[in-house]
Write a structure and sequence with these properties.
39% helix; 21 strands; 4 domains; alpha+beta; ten-stranded mixed β-sheet
């Protein structure tokens, strides 16, 4: 019987707990109080403050399975290993244990606990540079572990990925040295890119050999870091032991360990099948699709994988409170579901069934992620509503397509016996212009594949060259505006942003005091220019009430006072009626409660939060001014406000 994803997750957390690790919950897919990134994209991301020196309430040994989402991988879904949503098993040492503990633990877990074949297990390490020595300590530990299992333990020096493609690997080689582009971690990348003050260190990565035939497109020879698909990285041990100084690299006084392992990749290795979609948590959805479509997975690999991945990603995002919309995180939920609809149509899945595929996802994961079962009805309703809305949009888009088709025939003329378009075109046949195809995509959500399919049935072609040119321009503009949001770095803790964080607490207290206790946070985005705050409220707020909210906040600013912080168990905070909080399931089991108290003794605000705050109300400079109040989504309003100097 194949080992399940739930089994591996449970075994890992139990194994690390036996080594003295506190099991902490997964952070939410939407980082709390961090406007620099849209999603949690790695297991490390929520732990960065503690890796940088902040004390964690659970101690120096931590472990969890972290929900992750990488929006940039949406277009890559369709092969056997790319997914937008994934889980990352992780454990961390905050100045506690180091290499001699971490490496044997990982080997014991992967080989002895869950039964990976040691003959198919390969590792890499850092080859060193002029400033940082070769990581011989990790290699020596690995050699002894392999020797004790009776498998080969020869070491090879590779260098770069390109070097590996030229050199290849020999039969007895098990451990491979690579350069800083592969086996070094810092937020700035390779050692030579690190600024003064940045921390980083070598890593040792673990690969599983699925034994598939090498694809020479990726290099003449195969090696562990080859991208041909034979070797898949299943885990990465990062040893954060250096800091860059004016005088070069120095050892840190406290050295940290960060391990990240792809849960589904590990499951695929356990099942000796490189197709990540055949692990049980995804296969249950694929089986449902096969029943609904009466088609076989192997005959429609891309369509099956896109629908399965996108529905799962949407389920987890909606489960974390993100609904389909045209902005930020909601835009990606919408994009996932709309792509799922299109590929579901290719598979001829009956309309309205996507919500039932969502049910399959919930059933696979609810034992660990209980928020999915708690929000089952909301998740299914959101999926069904978006599918229905998109189908109406498709109907409008088809009407627009018909108008475009008519215009194409009007503008087509004979030149030297050939039909061409009046304006520049990449084809001599009647064609949908690149501009029209682009407009169908951006306005009506028509993927280029859909436009091409419809065009083919009408004897037309699509100017895909022109479309791709416009899409490239569109992506570059979008990337320029949002590239910082995918870095996954620390939140902006600049002075003005910290002021806005505390001001937001005061504004929420004012909203609840003036409009009623039904108001809770539904989302926020804080930058150095303004605060933006979403909250539960059924109707527009009139100007008189907005004025009262401004007066309330400004009075608190005038009174002045202190901001104190208390760390307490989450269940205690949640049970305390004086503590305001939303998204409780996003927080760890030890939480921070911030209390804002005026010099006159008035408690202005007492709220659950994970963000940075001022120490005194007097640190907030300027006058609070509401710039805009508007609808955010059904039952949710949005306020944008500033501090006027």
């Amino acid at each position: 019987m194949k080992i399940t994803v739930n089994d591996i997750r449970t075994k890992y957390l139990n194994f690390m707990a036996k080594q003295g690790h506190a099991v902490i919950p997964s952070a939410a897919l939407v980082p709390d109080n961090d406007p620099t990134t849209l999603f949690t994209g790695s297991g490390m991301q929520p732990l960065v403050p503690y890796l940088m020196g902040e004390l964690h309430p659970k101690g120096t040994r931590l472990t969890n399975s972290q929900k992750c989402f990488r929006a940039e991988d949406i277009d890559e879904v369709g092969d056997n290993r790319h997914t937008t949503f994934f889980e990352m098993l992780g454990n961390w040492s905050l100045g506690d244990y180091f290499k001699k503990e971490q490496i044997p633990w990982m080997y014991e877990f992967l080989i002895d606990e869950i039964g990976l074949d040691p003959e198919r297990f390969y590792v890499t390490a850092y080859i060193g540079s002029k400033e940082v020595p070769k990581d011989t300590e990790s290699v020596t530990i690995w050699q002894n572990l392999f020797k004790n299992k009776g498998v080969s333990n020869e070491v090879a020096e590779i260098g770069s990925e390109a070097d590996g493609g030229k050199r290849g690997m020999k039969a007895d080689e098990r451990i491979f040295y690579y350069d800083g582009s592969k086996n070094w971690w810092s937020r700035a990348g390779k050692p030579e890119n690190m600024p003064v003050g940045e921390i980083g260190g070598p890593d040792t990565e673990m690969f599983y050999d699925f034994g598939t035939e090498h694809d020479s497109t990726y290099g003449e020879h195969c090696h562990p870091n080859c991208d041909c698909g034979r070797f898949i990285e299943i885990g990465n041990n990062v040893f954060i032991e250096y800091i860059k100084t004016e005088d070069g690299f120095k050892k840190l006084a406290k050295q940290n360990v960060d391990f990240g392992g792809g849960l589904e990749r590990i499951a695929a290795a356990c099942n000796n099948d490189g197709d990540a979609f055949k692990v049980d948590s995804l296969w249950s959805v694929i089986e449902k699709i096969q029943n609904l479509s009466q088609k076989n997975y192997d005959d429609y690999l891309e369509a099956f994988r896109v629908v399965t991945d996108h529905i799962r990603g949407a389920v987890f995002m909606i489960g974390d409170g993100v609904l389909p919309s045209n902005t930020e995180q909601g835009y990606f939920v919408r994009r996932l579901l709309r792509r799922a609809v299109r590929y579901a149509d290719i598979l001829e899945i009956p309309a309205g069934e996507l919500q039932n595929l969502g049910e399959s996802v919930i059933n696979s994961y609810e034992s660990h992620y209980t928020n999915l079962s708690d929000r089952r009805a909301d998740i299914k309703s959101a999926i069904a509503g978006e599918e229905e809305q998109f189908r109406k949009t498709l109907e409008k888009g088809l009407k627009q397509f018909n108008k475009i088709e008519l215009q194409v025939h009007v503008n087509t003329k004979e030149v030297n016996g050939k039909k061409v378009i009046d304006k520049s075109s990449a084809t001599t046949k009647p064609a949908i212009s690149g501009k029209n195809a682009f407009d169908l995509f951006t306005t009506y959500g028509f993927p280029i594949e859909l436009t091409e399919e419809i065009a083919a049935t009408k004897g037309l072609v699509v100017d895909k060259v022109g479309f791709e040119k416009l899409m490239t321009e569109h992506r570059e503009k979008s990337r320029a505006g949002s590239e910082q949001k995918f870095k996954g770095g620390l939140a902006d803790n600049s002075e003005i942003v910290v002021q806005y964080h505390t001001t937001t607490h005061l504004m929420l207290a004012a909203l609840r005091g003036i409009l009623g206790p039904h108001i809770h946070q539904a989302g926020s985005n804080i930058t150095a220019d303004r605060l933006r705050f979403d909250f539960t409220h059924p109707e527009k707020i009139d100007s008189e009430k907005l004025d009262q909210i401004e007066v309330w906040v400004n009075k608190a600013l005038q009174v002045g006072g202190n901001v104190t912080i208390e760390t307490m168990p989450k269940d205690k905070a949640e049970a305390d009626p004086t503590v305001e909080g939303s998204f409780w399931d996003r927080y760890p089991d030890e939480v921070k409660v911030y209390t804002v108290t005026g010099h006159d003794g008035t408690i202005f605000s007492r709220e659950l939060c994970g963000g940075p705050h001022v120490e005194k109300i007097e640190d907030i400079k300027g006058t609070f001014k509401i710039k805009k109040e508007e609808s955010s989504s059904a039952g949710v309003r949005r306020i944008k406000a500033v501090l006027v100097q």
